[in-house]
């Protein structure tokens, strides 16, 4: 092909591609004939075809029924709903468009009118609560800017938020509340260098003002936790970054958040959500261990817990179970963002967790932790780009809830059976001796240990029983 032809071809392709993007969402109504003007009026239900989701048991073939999640059933002495404390993530469920770095949105929910108006935000909020009620959960999670649009000034953004939050409060009734709220400090261009770790003092102040307001509305709505996910708190290059100064700023930011929480009487738990990278090349809250070290250094270890997200765990090169155990043994396991990645895709795909083995491992940690309350399981998970029907929103949550419920049942079976725990107990039994107890109490010095080593001669080393452990684990699935 000649250079001129190549240029023509490229121009055509560009035209087609930008045409797709420019087409944008169709104007409302799409296929329902419902009233969809520039007000939050919406005549009728948002999900008329979907029944209230009930438990029907494992033999049910009804796609709109739970097969494993039976809210009132007791497992290990506690109701399933109290172990699991499920929550719907507003941003994925109601703001997710299916768009990705390579393509335009694929989802146009019938109630959307293509605007980011306050009226649209309120209509979406009504959809949120109908969804939550039909699904039968009691909790939801949000960012300030997913539920209400940015205004031209901070005052206007706060006023928009207040208007939508007032409606949310009314729609929540007495049973539903936020599992957590958070501030979105990553989408707006002002946050391109971060919020609390920005090189610009004005941005630091703006981020603080946004968090202050987001904490106030979370408190007003009865939220049980408040999350900090450091979306752009990290760096792209150490060459232009003063890492020590940025981390000190982040420490100060969190200390101020603790003071403000106390000042307004918010008793919810503050949570840091670790993630290793994306969108920044390196995110400061890399993983649970890094976040724990940060909290200790800045005197915040008793003021915060961690929100472990399974997809972030795998991005940091760990398993979700590893991150949960690291958080748990440090007294920091506060909440789980229940999702999973794809083993063949390298980014945060935020899929619903459907792997029963992984869910069982997750629930082993949760049971060891005595549950997550006041935390819970937030479905920080989205439909695949290709799932475009409204009913897919329900199906995705049902499979996600059933998978974790199955994990709970399996983990309980393992605990009640006791064989795996017995294997672990036996593995360490050499420490259940006088000298072992001395070591564990910090009373065995090197001279004593040298004396014992000489007395014992070459150590006897027992089998690690890895395959037996796997066999016992699988027998519960
Ligand atoms: C992004 C995070 C985000 C947080 C809330 O990767 O998971 O969704 O949970 O800001
Ligand atoms: Ni998350
Ligand atoms: Ni994530």
Structure in words:
The protein is an alpha/beta fold and 477 residues long. It folds into two domains: 54-417, TIM Barrel (Alpha-Beta Barrel), CATH 3.20.20; 419-476, no CATH class. 45% of the residues lie in helices and 10% in strands. It has 17 helices and 14 strands. The chain has an eight-stranded parallel β-sheet. A two-stranded parallel ribbon has the order 1-2. A two-stranded antiparallel ribbon has the order 3-4. Helix 4 packs parallel to helix 6 (154-172), helix 7 packs parallel to helix 8 and helix 12 packs across helix 13. The model is unreliable at 1-35 (pLDDT under 50). The site of one nickel (II) ion has 6 residues, from helix 10. The site of D-xylose has 10 residues, from loops. Its EC number is 5.3.1.5. Belongs to the xylose isomerase family. Keywords: Carbohydrate metabolism, Isomerase, Metal-binding, Signal, Xylose metabolism.
Instruction: Give the CATH superfamily of the largest domain.
Output: Divalent-metal-dependent TIM barrel enzymes
At CATH level 2, the architecture of the largest domain is Alpha-Beta Barrel
* Average pLDDT figure: 93
Total separate domains: 2
Tell the overall outline. Answer: globular
Structural class: alpha/beta
Radius of gyration: 25 Å
User: Compounds present?
Assistant: D-xylose, nickel (II) ion
The number of helices is 17
Q: What are the segments in which pLDDT stays under 50 over at least 5 consecutive residues? A: 1-35
Number of strands: 14
Q: What is the beta-strand fraction?
A: 5-15%
Assigned CATH class of the largest domain:
Alpha Beta
The CATH topology of the largest domain corresponds to: TIM Barrel
Give the distance, in angstroms, between the N- and C-terminal Cα atoms. Answer: 58 Å
